[in-house]
Design a protein that fits this description.
With 421 residues, the chain is of the alpha/beta class. The chain has two domains: 197 residues, Glycogen Phosphorylase B (Rossmann fold), CATH 3.40.50.2000; 157 residues, 3-Layer(aba) Sandwich (Rossmann fold), CATH 3.40.50. The protein contains 15 helices and 13 strands. The protein starts with a strand and ends with a helix. Keywords: Transferase.
Length: 421
């Protein structure tokens, strides 16, 4: 038996894939603790692991970040990304490291692994000089010698002009990362970690092992990835929770193809994507299933077309087998879930890592990148019609599905962590 501590930022999209790894390790008779927010206590327990809650680190509600991080109020786009990185991920890292130090003193572990935004785990391991691992649960933002910097939603250049663009953008990262670099220096000092001139795109990733959700077809086929990186496909686990379907569930087995529209669990203003998508598909010969992103919020603050059914949350294990096409804001977990089933996508990625997801899906050929998080109804309608009419999108999605399945999922991630131990 090996003792594992898995650290994960308390966001649904981060916690779920890490818990898939935790459950696999538990099934192999290892002792597993998960350090995350109290809101996920029941989910951690259901995985078979034990919760270590954020104590000194400021636990927060992912649906109301400004309540804990007031600088986020009113921010969107790149300004939101910057404040998220500095306030939510970097500034909380010293307190995370203190929580982890207290837990280690109470009961040591053999291996610590954190998602790429759990800098507290990285700081703790670096300060103590121990081996650690990264569980990458968002599109891989690991700096390399190829392509543009991650997060910009740009595919790597394919000609002298665009390759020069990529090189210039890579060179500009240290200049443009002033606020992030300063916050990192302060956080490392507060956590008692030796100074480092490396950027966030290096400090957040373990040099020993990084297991990454996704596959090479969703990583632009890059060849500059380190030997310590292993793609493991989609990190998910079978749902054991009882499913109480909505009254209209049987309609999904009717004659109309089903289009799923989701805005994820963050930045869930329905006017951004749900409303224009519903308007776009109102006259189409499809049944639309829209999810609001919050359990129990099964209605929208505006009338919906007759061919639309609304729910707060629907387990993908039950929903995706019934879906023909998906319109999404580009959440990585939902995107991988759909592509794992060969479902082509229309992606409206507006902020955080979503533009990067949209660009990767488009590069793979498995969907259309709307290049905005607030598309018009006409943009959505045109894209959905294009994806449904052109079989190349479904064929590409099926190629991605095959690669994701071959990568091994949570089992492969657990095996890699066992090897590290």
């Amino acid at each position: 038996m090996t003792r594992y501590l898995l650290s994960v930022q308390p966001f649904t999209g981060h916690v779920n894939p890490v818990l898939a790894v935790a459950a696999e390790l538990v099934a192999r008779d290892h002792d597993v603790r998960v350090y995350t927010g109290q809101a996920f206590a029941a989910a951690v327990t259901a995985s078979g692991a034990r919760l270590v809650p954020w104590r000194e680190a400021p636990d927060f509600d992912e649906h109301d970040l400004p309540a804990t991080f007031p600088r986020l109020r009113g921010k969107k786009g790149m300004r939101q990304v910057l404040v998220n990185v500095v306030d939510v991920f970097i500034a909380t890292a010293p307190a995370q490291a203190r929580d982890l130090a207290a837990e280690y003193a109470r009961q040591p572990w053999d291996v610590i692994a954190g998602d790429e935004m759990s800098l507290g785990a990285a700081f703790f391991a670096q300060r103590e000089g121990t081996i650690w691992a990264t569980i990458c649960i968002i599109p891989l933002n690991l700096a390399g010698a190829q392509g543009p910097p991650g997060g910009l939603g740009l595919a790597p250049g394919t000609n002298p002009l665009t390759r020069t663009r990529d090189a210039l953008l890579r060179a500009a990262v240290p200049v443009l990362s002033g606020p992030i670099s300063g916050a990192l220096r302060r956080a490392r000092a507060e956590a008692g970690v030796a100074p480092s001139r490396a950027g966030l795109d290096h400090q957040a990733f373990s040099p020993h092992l990084a297991v990454a959700a996704g596959c090479r077809l969703l990583d632009y086929g890059r060849t500059d990835r380190p030997a310590s990186l292993r793609f493991v496909g989609a990190l998910s686990r079978p749902s054991t929770a009882p499913f109480d379907p909505p009254p209209w569930w049987g309609e999904l087995d009717g004659p109309l193809p089903v289009v799923h529209v989701t805005q994820g669990t963050q930045n869930i203003d329905p006017d951004d994507l749900l409303r224009p998508a519903m308007e776009a598909l109102a006259g189409e010969p499809v049944l639309v299933v829209a999810t609001t992103g919050i359990r129990g919020r099964d209605e929208l603050p505006f009338p919906v077309p007759a061919n639309v059914r609304v729910a707060g949350f629907l387990p993908h294990a039950h929903l995706l087998p019934k879906i023909e096409t998906m319109v999404t804001n580009g959440g990585w977990g939902g995107t991988l879930g759909a592509l794992s089933r060969g479902i082509p996508l229309v992606v409206a990625g507006g902020d955080l890592d979503k533009p990067e997801v949209a660009a990767r899906v488009a590069w793979s050929g498995a969907g259309v990148n709307l290049k905005t998080g607030t598309p018009t109804a006409m943009q959505v309608r045109t894209a959905v019609r294009r994806v449904r009419a052109d079989p190349s999108y479904r064929a590409a999605a099926q190629r991605v599905a095959a690669q994701l399945e071959a990568a091994g999922g949570a089992g492969a991630a657990a095996s890699a962590l066992e090897t590290l131990a």
